[in-house]
Amino acid sequence: MTDFPEKSALEPDDWAAFRQRAHETLDRALDRLEQAGTGSVWSPVPKDVESQLEQALVAAPLEADACDAALASLLPYGVGNTHPRFLGWVHGSGTPFGLLPAMIEASLNANCGGRDHVGLKVERALTAWVAEQFGFPQTASGLVVTGTSMATVVALKVARDAALGFASRETGVDGSKLVAYTSAEAHACNARALDILGLGTSALRKIAVNGAFRMDLSALKSAIDRDRAAGLVPFAVIGTAGTVNTGAIDDLGGLAVIAEQEKLWFHVDGAFAASGILSDEVAPKLRGIERAHSIAFDFHKWLHVNYDAGFVLVRDEDLHRRTFSTRPEYLKAAERGLAAGNPWPVEFGPELSRGFRALKVWAHIAEFGPQRLGAAISENCQLVRTLAALVDDAPSLERLAPVETSICCFRYRADGLTESELDALNEEIVVRLQETGVAAPSTTKVNGKLAIRVNITNHRTREADLHVLLGAIDDLAPEALAQFRHT
Amino acid sequence: MTDFPEKSALEPDDWAAFRQRAHETLDRALDRLEQAGTGSVWSPVPKDVESQLEQALVAAPLEADACDAALASLLPYGVGNTHPRFLGWVHGSGTPFGLLPAMIEASLNANCGGRDHVGLKVERALTAWVAEQFGFPQTASGLVVTGTSMATVVALKVARDAALGFASRETGVDGSKLVAYTSAEAHACNARALDILGLGTSALRKIAVNGAFRMDLSALKSAIDRDRAAGLVPFAVIGTAGTVNTGAIDDLGGLAVIAEQEKLWFHVDGAFAASGILSDEVAPKLRGIERAHSIAFDFHKWLHVNYDAGFVLVRDEDLHRRTFSTRPEYLKAAERGLAAGNPWPVEFGPELSRGFRALKVWAHIAEFGPQRLGAAISENCQLVRTLAALVDDAPSLERLAPVETSICCFRYRADGLTESELDALNEEIVVRLQETGVAAPSTTKVNGKLAIRVNITNHRTREADLHVLLGAIDDLAPEALAQFRHT
């Protein structure tokens, strides 16, 4: 064969030099994490950094130094969630330890859609561990996915297809009349899943909540009765463990009873708070979750595994497999060789190519253990209660929701402003907090009022950070307020 | 606050010691890759390694040394796809370079579902680059996903919702009568996507292929006519760039013409061969792809980015966004601060939590450049042609399909065996190849015959590896054959 190079052009020419590059990159990655508590929570990406991103692709291949410098130039411009005063949305904060499985994962470069290898074994060991934590049978099936949004699609597809007897996989959902139920405070991923699954968002009934932001169980029962009377087919009820606005946890035991009575699939969206099963503080509030048919949750939120790592746990492995399994000739199962190792993950979810996401989760649990992970969750709960008390004591602040888990919603008050001016003022305060880089809460609406929403799913946050936050609000509010007084 | 620890228990106690751990782990990861060409392609996971996986979770937290050793113990038991003689299914082989962005990604721990940070900027730069490679307008939208299976769900949801006018997001697909078309050789992910999307696998017509395993265009037209006459609503045609059995590429230009005439969404499943757009050898065979409405493909296959990294490219950003965008209060867009940076990736796909998968792709292109990546693809094509010639010259081997891209299908022949015995013999040969660790092709059926299927999307494979493979087949065949002769 002519002109055929002796070695791959995608391998290092000089391994010693490449090793040095890799170790230098590791030190940069470590430096950033060692200094996670310093500097701004967040800074916008400078224009010159942004324009280099396209330039790098145009100029490629870059010299090794230029490529490494380009990678390093990104490090200051992340989301901010590794900083102790990132207090917005619900992000986990990751760990330095996460670097270790990331390197092993990159070296293995495994596709965990199937075949017989250690990737599948790790995922199975992890699934058994998860099942045990939630009081599920050891026969339960599970799948590591990118996050709760995907986990929800998987779980609700099992519910959909089980309700329709699996022929729907071939024939579609035409004429199915399926309806599901969740609370008005539930996350949008549930409605999105029904949209994706062809049932439409209108097939999801949003049931009113009580004063604690939990689903009103009698309203749920009425809605089911009404739908049955109208000829519709209720098939699933979705409980929330940790609502996105206020962190409330539905009465999961109560939902389990109704689901059983009404023969509905009981799914729990536990995106962040299901992890509370490891915390003495949160676990009692999750009672009833052990009776669910499926649970969707994230390892990258309150357990701080690096992004992305979600999980779907399904009580009945057979229903789960029948929902997704398809094995054409080229993916045929075998008893021996590389094509053994059945069942394959591709039989439990939509992905055929899938990285070895289970590794970082497994390693994280092995490194820290469930007690330490649970204690970090309890610490966060304690901090949020401390914050709520500080808010309650501050004359200029008004709390807008009870504290149940990781979230405290409140607002800054000023006399003489209308409700819509108060909304705009609090929005402005939050943006200024983010822009100054001092702290990064987010906003939401609670009972129609715009709230400064502080969520602490952050193992780096300490009490001092709460004082910095409240101090900064006091400092920024007069300027923000002046803006409204003078317009 | 009492009992509140001064620092997070998930941070290293001793940073210097932790740095050393990290550097040692990096060296193990590098060692494995430096020796990628040595040893067995694949070995089954020993029972003691497997049982340690569960034990590690039971015993957690492990001491640092034990945790690092547990991680290192996995390294020999991957899929095999980093070895030069991994020749099965369609796996990419990754690169040592992939370690660098993996470390930066782990340090940043970014959630790329939204918000204003460098993760979104990298993904945008990458999308513009991809659009340019495929001759799409710079206004095209794109999303990094786990793989082509997910990309297909995204693309076909855009097609579905665009056909139904987007009201279907709310109302579901009830009564839609949509049907789509693909070839009989298309990958199962297309039918799976229609199952997920509620249309059912029967809504996908499998059109016969010609002798080159390309979709028969006149059969396609007849099927469309037949469906319209029956009152159904044709909405999409799915061309394949690189069939999984033989590597064939449909006549994409011809499909584009029919799609335009029939007003169908033209989607290309280019899981592995769409990357051939960077190769002088393959690019001409892809002509017509620039007219697609959407393309799904993987970076982790023929471009060797580490798992997982797929991509969906959509010509019309507006249709794409209207298919997925939902912005509740807690995800509201803003002009300033962390909630700026619009549009957000969550508006273009099902995931809200999503890791910084774009980073490794962007860095890979920056490091290697499109020419070098394309040349590695062309080298693979050259190797497959060499293999086909060797097969054609070997009296004991019979080729079962033409070679178009990365795949050569053939079988071992022996006199006096029935077709089903030949099938079993070739299956046995492949299993023995895998079990001995010499080489790892896979199997499929071509025109009803079981084929030894060699796919070379492996930048490490050299011509000598082909001789090792064929030599091993010659060595193993008599033993495998004896099994049939004596039973």
Automatic annotation (TrEMBL), chains A, B:
Membrane-crossing segments per the record: none
Gene3D superfamilies hit by this protein: 3.90.1150.170, Type I PLP-dependent aspartate aminotransferase-like (Major domain)
Alphabetical UniProt keywords: Decarboxylase, Lyase, Pyridoxal phosphate
Cofactor(s) required, per the database record: pyridoxal 5'-phosphate
Signal sequence region: none
PANTHER family: GROUP II PYRIDOXAL-5-PHOSPHATE DECARBOXYLASE (PTHR11999), MIP05841P (PTHR11999:SF70)
Family stated for the protein in its record: Belongs to the group II decarboxylase family.
Protein's name according to its UniProt entry: Pyridoxal-dependent decarboxylase
Organism this protein belongs to: Henriciella marina
